[in-house]
């Protein structure tokens, strides 16, 4: 997003700060405004992630009509990040109010589909498939999708009822409350990795010593579960 903001600023003030890259910058700005920015701002909303990821991917493929180079580069890159279209995480869409009732009916029906023998944490799609533009969320649902509710230990009896009546169902209301409280983990995980990497490098750059350091930290956290002064004195 920082690069996107810089690109927009460079184009807005193009007369004050001339550049030979104006054509490339303008292409980036068009992509940001027409497609990227909407999904960027909705990215932190977990329940919308599967539907948004699918729509964004299809949008990237369709962007060939505007700019083939950008379309091919971005769709290929984003295809490596379809975590929320896996058999389990796609269950977020049952709660998403932007997913149509018709699609949810198909999703419930798809729960009868046998799960693949090889379980994949990240969904893979064929970008060359001509039917990619017609993909819907129910195509990613299998019998394993129910594991999402079991792992979180949240009720999912509402699935046996008509989606149009879910809002009135108590189990759906409880499920929605829990699922909406979940946070998108990508940013937190990346920040955590960056933090521990920076912390390690400040103390030692030797891999063996870093492993010892992590073991010490782990033992300390197990012994002192809280940082309150009464536990440390």
Outline the structure in words.
The chain has ten helices and no strands. It is an all-alpha fold and 233 residues long. The relative contact order is 0.09. The model has no long low-confidence stretch (mean pLDDT 86).
Describe the structure using short key phrases.
233 residues, mainly alpha, globular
Measure the end-to-end span.
Answer: 45 Å
Please summarize the sheet with the most strands.
none
The average pLDDT is: 86
Radius of gyration: 23 Å
Determine the fraction of residues in helical runs and give it as a percent range: 40-55%
Shape: globular
The helix-and-strand class reads mainly alpha
| Unreliable segments of 5+ consecutive residues | none
Element string (H = helix, E = strand) = HHHHHHHHHH
What share of residues are in beta strands? under 5%
Query: How many β-strands, per DSSP?
Result: 0
- Count of helical regions: 10
Outline of the structure:
By secondary structure, the protein is mainly α.
